Amino acid sequence: MKTTTRVVVIGGGVVGCSVLYHLTKLGWSDVMLLERSELTSGSTWHAAGGFHTLNGDTNMAALQGYTIRLYQELEEITGMSCGLHHVGGLTLADNQERFDMLLAERAKHRYMGLDTEIIGPEEIAKLAPIINLDGIIGALYDPLDGHLDPSGTTHAYARAARMGGAEIVTHCHVKETTQRPDGTWDIVTDKGMIHTEHVVNAGGLWAREVGAMAGVYLPLHPMEHQYIVTDETPEIYERETEHPHVMDPAGESYLRQEGRGLCIGFYEQPCRPWAVDGTPWTFGHELLPDDFDKIEESIEFAYKRFPVLERAGVKSVIHGPFTFAPDGNPLVGPIPGLRGYWSACGVMAGFSQGGGVGLMLAQWMVHGECERDTAAMDVARFGDWISPGYTLPKVIENYQTRFSVSYPNEEKPAARPNRTTPMYDIFDGMGAVWGQQYGLEVVNYFAAEGEPRFETPSFRRSNAFAATAREVKTVRQAVGINEIHNFGKYRVRGPNARGWLDRIMAGRIPQPGRLSLTPMLAHSGRIIGDFTVSCLAPDDFRLTASYGAQNYHMRWFLQNAEEGVTVENVSDKLNGFQIAGPKATEVLQACTRQTVDLKFMDVRRMTVGMTDCLVQRVSYTGDLGYEIYCDPMAQRQLWRTLTEAGAAHGMKPFGMRAMMSLRLDKGFGSWGREYSPDYTPAETGLDRFISWSKPVDFIGRSAAEKERRTPPERVNAVFAVEAEDADVHAYEPVWIDGSVQGFCTSGGYSHHAQQSVALALIPRSLAKPGLVAEIEILGKMRKATLLDAPLFDADGARMRG
Ligand SMILES: Cc1cc2nc3c(=O)[nH]c(=O)nc-3n(C[C@H](O)[C@H](O)[C@H](O)COP(=O)(O)OP(=O)(O)OC[C@H]3O[C@@H](n4cnc5c(N)ncnc54)[C@H](O)[C@@H]3O)c2cc1C
């Protein structure tokens, strides 16, 4: 065993072996993997081995597609068999909502190059005759779905990694991971010590314990899971072809052929977390005792859906644990603030996702960034606020809703309310219907007296429609007030603050008293942030950006730290309100003795009522507006001051649903939708905020300059859509002249213009005024006309005036 290496991967399950293989594939051969027992000794050996592409997150779905296609490559490289059975798979829909979800998925797959199709009951019967079709409306068929041999596949990854120079040491238990002052790591094992630059935690069932060795809390939890293998069944062994996989979301089950019988697994409601206080090191190649009580109801349902099961005897039961993160997606990437420590855990579908996880992590380590947006799996998507007490109920919720329809407007209830501001009870008393962002309660909209305090989850327009329309009207016609707790906020100070910001941000850094908008770019020129920069003094700046990206942004700031500058995350130390609408200035003026003469993009300290505030003249609503920041301790007092003054002007509160409608009037993009590492400034229009004249080699400059010389082929455009009861959410395909030429990044309904709106990436050559396209929304083609001017305040007179 070598004692120095570039990378130590801890854990020889499918994920650790995939990471190791991908590191070698990208050219790092001085890498090793340590496994405390034999390879596959965690969850991996007892997996059912099923794989599929379906995932609500488009990037995750694409990576699942990559994983599945990789197996053939692995077989070719190694000469080993992964035991592949590409039998295709059906996901059933027994009600309109489920069918809507499948239609939406199918639409996304069109431009992702995934060859899925929607089929009706007759075709389902032909493909999978053992299904009782009572109540089935249709299904999504994916020819890529199938299953494999979990152990063979893991060993194939391992052999491919060894062929690339990797060393694998089994029966080597990592006991400690200690960071040296220079940032490198000592890995203490029962076979001796290894010194390494990078550590990858791929500890699977023991990832929590491995993380704790470095003082890292990883929000994941193991759950018990059970599947049954039946005896031989004539309906199966008399077939000429292998039976396809069937996912039956209504029955929370997945089914496939196993030998001459069947295999069926359940995501049962009375599910059970496993090893709540920690995974014992003594747990090895063993299973949990059978537990039919837990799946009794699921089995009864399955007997109705697949009557053949009732006649088939049980050959074996596999009951074992595997891990989930609170939202069911993996935890991948560099741990914020900890140099050289990488996470590759929380992978609940190792055979659908393991290849993609390995590829992304290896790209991140070798190239410094990934080829696509990894937000859905980035370990930084959970903040420092996360705790085991939060993770457990969320993981249970995730297990129970694994097969539920996931709606674009859905707000899952477990572990809430968790984090609240001083406004929570005030807003709750006013009819707030709550959403959740990065653990924080955020008002979606205010229900009127007699209206339900719950938004119906739907792919179509929800019952929030009327309330959102009311709130938009208040903003556009009078003045609205909205809490601004859900912005990520950073204080940047020091003699080198301006120099550092100039290097980190692509845009102009403002002078004292002014604001600027700027993209933040990765070295590749992709967008990793869209910021408002406020200059309070020559050496004192405030940044605002997306609340959900705090850990993601802080990780980048720390990775790019410099002498003479400090960056502090003050997201929860500053709260306040924005007021927006034609009466906003009058309201603010009524609350202060200072003259409210701020020009657009001015920032100033003001006393509002009795509260010391930082006031910025800017508003994401696209209207005349002010952001008024204060100490959270003074927030209720500020609320009283503003609302007392606002009453005379008809001021009313508004929530996030209205905010997202208002931004559509101006075609403003938003983080995670238009602005993400999947896109570049020139594709999204953020290039207009790049300061080409500043004499600084800001990060991403050369890539941005290149793009300036040769504009990208696609560009974001705003469309008016002739929709009926369903608007664009994201990733709907855009058809132009009979073929898919682009996709939507976001959309919704502009209540101000009473118009359905979509923002979409389409070929630059076609993005001309008057372009008429079609957008596929829930299986229907909707006429969409490119807008050449914003729907509100086209000349900016109101916003800037
Ligand atoms: C019943 C069941 C059915 C499933 N069916 C499917 C399916 O059909 N399709 C699918 O995609 N997924 C399925 N899964 C999930 C799948 O098993 C997991 O996603 C996958 O195995 C996770 O792999 P991993 O490498 O992350 O973790 P693990 O397999 O748990 O591997 C972690 C490894 O790390 C090692 N390790 C931990 N700590 C140390 C240490 N300190 N020193 C050295 N080594 C250490 C462990 O010994 C272990 O080998 C199923 C799971 C269960 C329980």
Task: Give an overview of the whole structure.
The chain is α+β, with helices and mostly antiparallel strands. Helix content is 26%, strand content 28%. The strands form 7 sheets. Strands 1, 2, 8, 9, 10, 11, 17 and 18 form an 8-stranded mixed beta sheet that branches. Strand 36 (772-777) and strand 37 form a beta hairpin. Helix 1 runs parallel beside helix 10. The structure holds flavin-adenine dinucleotide. Flavin-adenine dinucleotide is lined by residues 10-16, 34-37, 41-44, 46-51, 173-174, 202-206, 210, 225, 227, 318, 320-322, 345, 347-352.
Features:
binds flavin-adenine dinucleotide; 801 residues; 21 helices; 28% strand
Q: What is the β-strand count?
A: 37
Helix content: 25-40%
* Shape category: globular
Q: Give average pLDDT, whole number.
A: 96
- Put simply, the count of helices is 21
Q: Which structural class matches the secondary elements?
A: alpha+beta
Small-molecule binders: flavin-adenine dinucleotide
What integer value in Å does the Rg equal? 27 Å
Portion of residues in beta strands equals 25-35%
